[in-house]
Structure formats: structure tokens, C-alpha cells
Design brief:
Elements lengths: L17 H39 L1 H17 L1 H13 L1 H29 L26 H7 L1 H4 L3
Length: 159
Amino acid sequence: MIYKEFSFGGKNNPLGSFGAIIGIIAVMLLLFFIVKGLFMILSFVAPVLLILALFFDYTVVTDYFKFIGKLFKEKPLFGVLASILTVVGYPVVSGFLFFKAFARKSLKSAVKKAEEAQRPKYSEYEEVKEEEEFLTLPRVEKESVKAKKNDNDYEDLFK
């Protein structure tokens, strides 16, 4: 009979595979407390973020509530679920709305700057009043075409 042993901790580890399980649980607890702390901080900052979102671009907030209303009309169960998640996840929703409003404002200002850069820039000018004619040219008398032809020796060859 062949017997093979698989162990994660090696032969000298007294915990065996329990060490890896305890490590995973410790990492999960650490992540839980980090997320809990971030959620608590975000819950204190959420009203300010919502007000700033309204200040940057109020249509983001109105569009979100229109989306929830549309869910109520088309799929009432999803509408109720979305409204419950909005109330429970108020800090996350306000952070999302703030980020979206800030991104729209930044995008609009970047587009506006790009359009201004493409417009031709006009320089200031000053109209000069014409007081006197500073360039006077003498009149040139036109010679007749026939007189010109007679003066040419080359034309005499064809007569």
C-alpha cells in the first residue's frame, strides 16, 4: 500500500493546515476593519459630498433619482431594492454622486479649454487715419500694341 501525505505547513509545523486557515481569517478580519473604518469616515463626510455634488452638477443627483423612479415604474421589485440600498449605502451613493459630478465638471472644463484653444485668437489693432497720401507714383503712359510690334526685329522676319 502506498501512502502519500500532503501538508501545507511542512512536517515541523505544529498547526499544519490550520495555520493557513488562521492566516486567511486574520487577513479577512483586517480587511473588514479597514472597510468598516472607511465606511465610518465616509458616513461623516457624506452630507458634505452630496452638497458638493449638487454644487458641481446638480443634474447628476436628479438623474440618479430619475433612474430610481424609472426602476419603480418598469421593475417595481428592483426599484424597492435600489431604494433600500440607497438608504443603507447612503455614504457610498453620495461618494459616487460626488465623483460623477466632479468628473463631469472636469470634463466640461477640459472640453471648454480645448475649444478655446482651437478658436483663432485676434490681436488688438488700431485704425490708422489717412491724413495724406504718402505714396505717389508717376503716371505710366501705355504704349500702343502696334507700335510695340514694329519695334521688334523678330516680327520683321514674318512680314
